[in-house]
Amino acid sequence: MNGHQLATALVLLLALVAQAVLPRLRLLVVTTAAVATIIASSLVGHVSAGVLFSQVPWDVLVIVVVLGLFSEFLAESRAFGVVALWAAKRSGARARPLVLTFVVAMYLVSGVVNNLTALLLVLPVLLNLLKLLGTSQRYLTWTLGAVLVACNLGGAATPVGDFPAILLLGRGSMTFSDYLVRAAPQTMVALAVFLGVVLVLVRPEKGLSESPLNARLALATMSAFHRNVRVDRGLLVPGVLALAGMVAGWLVLPAAWVGPEVIAWAGAVALWWARPALAELLLRKRVDVEAALFLLCLFILVGAVRAAGTFEVAGRALEALPMSPRGQVVVFLVSAAVLTGLFSAGPGMAALLDVAERLAAKHPPAAIYVGLALSVCAGSSLFLTAATAGPLTQALTERAGLKVDGATGRFGFFDFAPVGVLGFSVILAVGLGFVMVAL
Asked: For residues 109 and 96, what is the distance between their CA atoms, to the nearest angstrom?
């Protein structure tokens, strides 16, 4: 590795470490690193700013922004609050069914909309119910932790659920249908195994005293509190129809005819016309532009590393490992999971996809790409800071002020750790099993 390759790799690594250590300043960190990289590359003459910007996958950013609009539109319909109340009633406010219903509900919702938006509207209902029922620290930790793992799995189940899958779709690495039929079953298996271990072996409700009368009173209170909450069909129906049209387009239209980003754009325009004033307001004030800017800066950093040839060096080093080709794939996927746990899903996937493409040239591409998506999902479930919605869940829990054993209920880094290790192990094992069968 020459000096230029080492320098670009070091800048990317330092930026990833800093944004992981300082999550509140992550946008400033990656923006500073991207600007410094552009200036340095232009001055040294290795690659111009125009080349770096031309390598940015703008189609991916378009899809990210469009899906953000859909998430906010559906959130305005109050559908998530109704789903949360339905899950509470369906469980009968009993400890074990409560975990099951909320975990399954969040898995399904996260396959379609942004995790942060869904959790922001669903978690308060769950936390209020736990406050009314009374809970233990053990039950609180495992319930919220299981919900987070389910969100990660739901996001990995579809090509539009989370950034790693969106990146595969936007870059044309996999089609919508190819990813869906391979990834969705694997995430379902992982969720079933994870829930089985939690409910049968861990048993978070152990030692928790349950009262049928208290459960009925809690549900009655929740129902009274939300009695005026109704789904706004005028928002929900156009949102669902536009999203269904996008999915149909991704499934039916060949990417050579119409790219996935064009289909997403068309869906956004259709939704925009359904409620123009509201869509304008959401785009200006609620859609997460920060995520798009963060990814733009990240793509510039990764592009500089790619232009320097660093990923080629990493790929050759992987291929030079004294083991079978299948063993090299395993090393790559395990390393991807660990790195994602340290740096989070977005940076991890963006940086690793170039190495994955090198492996995909020698192995079945679907196995490599879906295996990488599941490894990234496993890594994002390892630590509370790696999970997309981990800090949000922690903040909402602290704000709820639950009383647990005479103290305030908590959901911090070390509280989540046992749940994270279990989720990481199960998801990674399922992903590796899928890849070994597919190779």
From this structure: 20
Global model pTM greater than 0.70: yes
pLDDT at 116 over 80: no
Considering the domain boundaries, does residue 206 fall inside one? yes
Q: The tokens of 37 are what?
A: 């990289």
Residue with token string 């030079």: 320
Residues in a beta bridge with 407: 404
Domain presence at residue 230: yes
Side chain identity at residue 124, one-letter code: P
pLDDT in tens, 251-295: 888 877 888 888 888 988 988 888 888 888 887 777 767 778 888
- Burial tier of 201 (Cβ tally within 10 Å: 0-12, 13-18, 19+): exposed
Q: Going by C-beta distance under 8 Å and a sequence separation of 6 or more, which residues neighbour residue 270?
A: 238, 242, 245
Which is nearest to 5 in space by CA: 30, 41, 36, 29? 41
**How many domains does the chain contain in total?**
1
For residues 308 and 46, give the distance between their C-alpha atoms in angstroms, rounded to a whole number. Answer: 8
**Residue 365 corresponds to which tokens in the numbers above?**
């591409």
Cα–Cα distance measured from residue 115 to residue 228, given in angstroms and rounded to the nearest whole number: 25
Q: For residue 352, tell me if it sits in a domain.
A: yes
In sign, the C-alpha dihedral spanning 372, 377, 378, 383 is positive
Task: Provide the residue type at 364 as one letter.
Answer: P
* Token pair 């989540």: residue: 416
In a domain, 82, yes or no: yes
> pLDDT by residue (tens digit) across 159-170?
887 778 888 887
The pLDDT tens digits of the residues spanning 346-404 come to: 777 777 888 888 888 888 888 999 999 999 999 989 888 777 678 778 888 888 778 77
Q: What is the DSSP string of 222-263?
A: HHHHTTT----HHHHHHHHHHHHHHHHHHHHS-TTTS-HHHH
- Listed residue (423, 338, 345, 419) closest to 26, CA to CA: 345
Q: Which residue's entry shows tokens 């009383």?
A: 403
Domain that holds residue 366: 57-292+308-438
Q: Whose CA is closest to 60, among 151, 160, 137, 153?
A: 160
**Structural contact between residues 336 and 375, judged by C-beta atoms closer than 8 angstroms:** yes
Sorting pLDDT into bands at 50, 70 and 90, what band is 1?
low
